[in-house]
Amino acid sequence: MASTDKLIFAPAGKSTGKADQYLRGNLHRSDLVDDPFTQFHEWYSHAKENVHQPETVCLSTASLPSGAPSSRFVYLKELDSRGFVIYSNWDTSRKAADVKSNPQASLAFWWHELERQIRVEGSTERLSREESQCYFDVRARGSQIGAWASPQSSVLKDRDELEQRVKAVETRFEGKNIEVPDFWGGLRIVPSMIEFWQGRDSRLHDRFRYTREGGSWKIERLSP
């Protein structure tokens, strides 16, 4: 097929007519601390001042036995000494089905304004109901109701069906505090690998990979 027949072919930057180059920074081994959670927190703190919604992250899972992957954008809500925490429906959603058959997952952050990327790979574990309730309590009431009302990823006849579900939940909890649903809560990705990526000119990016070695982390520079 000729390039003129392609719907998209070699997208270019607006100013040069060629692919954009990454020129905003560099990354050296001496810039990194030994603990990847501390390193992530440093980068994230910087991103909060420069990036729109830096907590946005692509969560990828894969079902077994097919191995078919699926990805979606979610919000990182917590980072603790064990890993990265997101919240969702763990009953009807596609990610729930994937995690039930395959506890491995990955995260990918892209911070365009800083030309930085972070990848995380590891195993998953559910947070306790008590932990999930702590976060659920700080959500807007409408979001709390939505968690109860939406059997995520299930087929809807129309929008009216969803709105009727919302009204039923509003009536059920009118004048009451809303408890976290049993099917909803936190998922922690416990990393076995974390990679920090800084864009560089000519696609010769700086990449450093942290991998677990017993109770410590091994840090290696990767070829771009």
Automatic annotation (TrEMBL):
> Which pathway is it part of?
Cofactor metabolism; pyridoxal 5'-phosphate salvage; pyridoxal 5'-phosphate from pyridoxine 5'-phosphate: step 1/1; Cofactor metabolism; pyridoxal 5'-phosphate salvage; pyridoxal 5'-phosphate from pyridoxamine 5'-phosphate: step 1/1
- InterPro entries per the record? Pyridox_Oxase, Pyridox_Oxase_CS, Pyridox_Oxase_N, Pyridoxamine_oxidase_dimer_C, Split_barrel_FMN-bd
Taxonomically, the superkingdom here is Eukaryota
Please list the residue ranges annotated as the Pyridoxine 5'-phosphate oxidase dimerisation C-terminal domain: 184-224
Q: Which residues cross the membrane?
A: none
Q: What class of enzyme is it?
A: oxidoreductase
**EC id:** 1.4.3.5
Q: Which cofactor does it need?
A: FMN
Protein name, per record: pyridoxal 5'-phosphate synthase
Q: Which organism is it from?
A: Gomphillus americanus
